[in-house]
Amino acid sequence: QQQVKQSPQSLIVQKGGISIINCAYENTAFDYFPWYQQFPGKGPALLIAIRPDVSEKKEGRFTISFNKSAKQFSLHIMDSQPGDSATYFCAASMAFGNEKLTFGTGTRLTIIP
Amino acid sequence: DAGVIQSPRHEVTEMGQEVTLRCKPISGHDYLFWYRQTMMRGLELLIYFNNNVPIDDSGMPEDRFSAKMPNASFSTLKIQPSEPRDSAVYFCASRQKGTANYGYTFGSGTRLTVV
Hints:
The complex is a heterodimer of chains A (113) and B (115). Chain A is built from no helices and 11 strands. In chain A, a hairpin with a 6-residue loop joins strand 4 and strand 5. With 113 residues, chain A is mainly beta. Chain A starts with a strand and ends with a strand. Chain A is globular and about 40 Å long. Chain B is an all-beta fold and 115 residues long. Helix content of chain B is 0%, strand content 54%. Chain B has strands at residues 5-7, 10-13, 19-24, 31-38, 42-50, 53-56, 65-71, 74-79, 88-95, 105-106, 110-114. In chain B, strand 4 and strand 5 form a beta hairpin. Chain B is globular and about 40 Å long. In chain B, 37% of the residues are buried. The chains are: A mainly beta (113), B mainly beta (115). The interface between A and B is medium-sized, with 22 and 22 residues.
């Protein structure tokens, strides 16, 4: 049972553009929604996370938008750079992240010059 | 801090052979997770431990898979006998309780190929 659905599977964006990755969840008990970034040959690393009491969280060029009623959240990367090329995973957890993480299927992002 | 250390980085084995993957979590972290990553299924949680005790092994695909954590600094994931469909990248991750905002720390993974 896939509890976190992620789209698109792959994304190509021009340098300087906005990259948008979307996720939807089913379990209303989820209350912690992180995004992980993975480079080839490496394990995923936490990028940014949000709790459902806020609708948006911004850290530098990275923003999470959260829509509790629609059970959706998204990652926006502003001014996308070639160094942002990686695979991005959304995830969800209960107990504010103190329970196990359930990951989406990943989005391979490529930033072209 | 050396991070989460996994060994070996690559493993190629023949079908039917036993495979043992190893993980050393970050010192002081009391949660340890084993994930499997494939193109088709993404990142799947296999099992996780809290204070060396297995908490949830519902993701372990079948009896051929077993995991142990004999102490706070070492865990193994064993596949016996291995099959070609077990080919994947296996990640170990650790976390300290109460530090959810800092996320999981993943190792660099073990790429397993079963031929």
